[in-house]
């Protein structure tokens, strides 16, 4: 996992922006349940009334409330409503009140609001107070909670209780009570202190639960007052539109932030995928054959494609979900704890259960992910072998065998994938059970809290929402926890390729300086007691090889199959490095030359012609931008490719499919030869490059090639005697040892191994040395 975070660290600025945006998104997401609670509790149940302090107040109600306050509070209260806003005597609350002044007024008016509302309620039910005294507060039944109380204040309908039917007070009842208070204030012996004493005595007899329940009903008087003014509906709708508008604004902001986060996360992950592909390909392109064989081509393809896709996908998830889940979860926990609902233990239970589930799944499924990637490699290997060898498979009627081999590899992968997928799928029912069980616990214990007056319906809805957000945070982490191990394995496999140092590398600057400063290269190739052993092999593939290939001469290498001919040729371009002795070009060890400098001197034609997707022109100019159209056409003419190119409708612009699959073997070989000739190198390396040519074309091509390479060094690996017959020197290899060096005539006289090869390929007439020496057709 550290390797994935290392890749993300390269884009730290974008990651910081994503985290900042996720905090904004989480803030919006966590604010919405609060607004939902406000709409339910305040907007619906309380008619949009947020405070026990009315925004507008009639003078009669103000006088009645003032009588229930101390002289100091009454003076401050009356001062807060200092001017009229309507002709009918409605006063408006001052807008310049400070927060402290407003809080003090709300505290002062709460008990008078409750007393005035209860008195109006008693009046509506025929038990109103006499004008000469104030009934003790303790004799009033506590106002009903929640929506019941709100509806009571909003409409004069009858409500059923356990014993009697209670009628909700109306504006007329409030007016009657206010008139009674006004009349009582005019009675002889009336004093504000008497009312304060009665209120204090009544409050002293109540417990905290009753006081808390009554305090939550202080807004009922405000609702009744607004009804009397005829603005109750307007106040409620204004509140709902205001809070709903804020919710809509937060939602739109959250959507915009989520889109922006997704865009940045996608760009970062795409950049990580691009960089990984670049690094992996850069490493692979510099690998020698030893490193390629160590990883296998199929595995390198899987690592460059499937593994990088896994890492790229997980990087998006990390930025979009893993970074968001903790922010959302911690924010939800903070809101739940801050709410002081007494239900926080449900969250603790959820977290413990979720962590236990995630830990179990991680330990249970993680070991399978590394196995899965290995099986993907195996399936790719089998698929590649079958598809590249489909002709021999059909020719030998091995279709059923190969189908069974592919099916076995596919079933092994399927079994592992099913195991990991089932582990992931099994997580969902448990998550659903935890979520639904949590909701059930909240509704059960929240309902009891609402019944006791310790919680409102909106608070319970918000608590459920926050709890679901917390659970969803852990659900996101659990889903990612299942994906991360596989991505971690993929990252390790990619890193293994990137960390593998190529065994063949350029020398340091000081060592390479002579080669870099040299201008006129002649192209003299010399092997000095060269030995070579493949990595992990028990014996040498080449032993003590020494020879010199001069410019203007052709050096041919011949021998039985597997004797080391191609291996010897591959030591010159450093596809392998010698394990003993050295190979030099113009006296400089090839290991002391920059590979770019060395390869610029070489024209290499591999044993198996390799063409690249594009056109004939792009393939012939593969050696560099310095190759002109004239060079290209000349090379094609020398390689005897001009004839078939001219027959194509598009000529040199004719398309070449991947691997040259739309041209024949002989055409592919001639184009490969032309590609090397177009480069005009100092040293030509032909690795059995004439095997697919017919005898006539072979003779014609070599005659034209001899004229082109008069000043260059030519080294040819061949199986056919006819190809090397007129070489200036022929090297005969046998089981990695040089058993003969000389011309055809010399070797026929002195080398039994060469004689054996010649007798197996040439007729008796062709073996006549005199005829061969006098013959001119090959010159």
Distance between the termini: 66 Å
Radius of gyration: 47 Å
Sheet-strand content, in percent, reads 5-15%
Number of helices: 30
Estimate nothing, just give the exact number of structural domains: 4
Class based on secondary structure composition and strand pairing: alpha/beta
The helix content, as a percent range, equals 55-70%
CATH class of the largest domain: Mainly Alpha
Mean pLDDT over all positions: 81
- Uncertain regions: pLDDT < 50 for 5+ in a row? 135-163, 769-779
CATH superfamily of the largest domain: ABC transporter type 1, transmembrane domain
CATH topology of the largest domain: ABC transporter transmembrane region fold
> What does the largest sheet look like?
6 strands, mixed
Number of strands: 17
Strand line-up of the largest beta sheet: 11-14-15-8-16-17
Shape annotation: rod-shaped
Transmembrane segments: 247-268, 313-337, 343-365, 423-445, 460-484
Biased composition (Low complexity): 142-159
InterPro entries: AAA+_ATPase, ABC1_TM_dom, ABC1_TM_sf, ABC_transporter-like_ATP-bd, ABC_transporter-like_CS, P-loop_NTPase, Type_1_exporter
Protein name: ABC transporter
